[in-house]
Fold these 4 entries.
Entry 1:
Amino acid sequence: MEKARVYLVGAGPGDPDLLTVKAARLIASADVVVHDGLVDAAIMALISPSARLISVAKSRSRHSVPQDGINDILVREAQVGRVVVRLKGGDPFIFGRGGEEAEACRDAGIDVEVVPGISAAMGGAAATMLPLTHRDASSAVTFVAGQCKGLTDQNWAGLAGKGRTLVIYMGVATAADITEKLISDGLSPDTPVAVLERATRPDARAMQTILTDLGDMIKREGVQSPAIIVVGDVVLKSDAENRLKHFAKQAEKIA
């Protein structure tokens, strides 16, 4: 039996085969699973039929449960002796607000443990053979959130450019603003960019263009979240088309 505590578990970018062994074990044995809306159905299917599911799905314009409410759920369920898994897409500590949830548990005297997951950037890069670092193209990577408050007031100068890779999470809805900001902060309009949509899933897509066309391409292609934007010369090292064909064929075999 697991000791009653809260586990902040990274579900990864979607493919259930990318779960850690520990994550899969905890998902299957938890008493309560508090889950995001973007966790893939194949991963949700691993949850024990006896477990209680609590959805705390979020979107850009609507949070079904505010963060303070999520924190309260985790603490309350653990205080009565239940093993609680907080199941989060990607990794709990990369734009997953896992730090806030861990703090809330610790403040309440609840044992909490973090089980890392493969982030969207790592999963998407691997699926499309897009190296986030490359000896000939980049020796530094920066992760930023494209929906953060005060976006226009932040200084992004130097985050992308020669020898650097910029990965933008949650940037689909603000792509035009992001483009304007990066160019105004000194980045060349013809810098290569890629958009990786639903990375590692059977319906994944990868698109490439230049920075000045980013917002228009997202509209043309009807890109939807979850998706990440990669900015930098590493985009030109990608083998996205061939890799995605491979994953599609594998999905057809499984079906």
Entry 2:
Amino acid sequence: MPGDESEHAPMKKLTSAVGIALASLAAGFVVAPGVANAHPHHPPRPLRECATPSVDRLQQWIASGEGATEPATGSLLVPVRGKHRYAAKVNFLNPEWHVVVVWLANQFEAQVDLSRSAGFWLTYSATEDVYLQLRPASHWSGGDKWLTLVPATGGRTVTRFFSFRPDRWTTLPELGAPAYSFASALAEARGFVFVGKTENRLVFRGLRFDGYVPPCL
């Protein structure tokens, strides 16, 4: 991953018990095409994009090089036909761990205080489940992170609300428990990291936060 080599340590296999626990987190979210769920408000209006390619003003969607992905490294952003917009697309190719990164303030050295945010809306499609890690600036490396399940959509594009309520986030015992609180991670959020160990076709078309607009660089 750009700016840090140590985070590419292999991740351990999930146990079935962990999988069940993660699935239970998603039970409160009902997938529906084009509709935000589990939040009293609709997603905010589309943001004015940056002068360079971006998805909701997020310019850094990166294949880290861990696991066989397409693209293998570099930016995931591709033009959306006929819309003058972009999407972040990546394929996980083998049954092994894969890692893709989103820098929340568009540069690795920056961080964002999300402690007053209710959560975020993700517009995406996925053929298999994937996991989203919240990585703080002070504890960027390693697999021992707070995370939440991003459920498969059967390849359909959906918009889903993910709450920052602590009970919506968990850890993977085999990766270790974070030595910091979820609240502290929110206060110094550097990036979202999507990880998965199955073949998957992922397309991200939107990522908007309650109370936060990324700065264009």
Entry 3:
Amino acid sequence: MAENESLEKGDDVTWRSHGQTVHGEVEQKITRRTETAGRTVDASSDDPQYKVKSDKTGREAVHKPGALKKDG
């Protein structure tokens, strides 16, 4: 994802997981240390992460912006 491109809740995105491309949706921008998606996320306003939900499995994951590609 480009540095100047930001993601918002509801954006459709893709990411790589276990050798496959996963399609899903941004659920939340995380800007502070928190527990979500089954793990501790060490995010900050300078280093945000995004909680995403897979369209296929419904599972949630957290990724840094560089791992996500905005669809469309």
Entry 4:
Amino acid sequence: MEAPGKLTNVQLELLKLFQFNLPENQLRDIKEMLAKYFATAASNEMDKLWDENNWDENTIDSWKNEHLRKK
């Protein structure tokens, strides 16, 4: 784990990219690409968990009915 205050490898790479003043449309495109990348990564991880745990529609139904909040 990185020490507090140190930049991560992703932050360092983004700083290299953003040393230039980009037009708003390019900045918007980059934000969209990053959002799609992380959404795809999350979806792929969920697919992996789904397969590894043999989850199915019954699993989802049981989650809907769980009461996780304590009174």
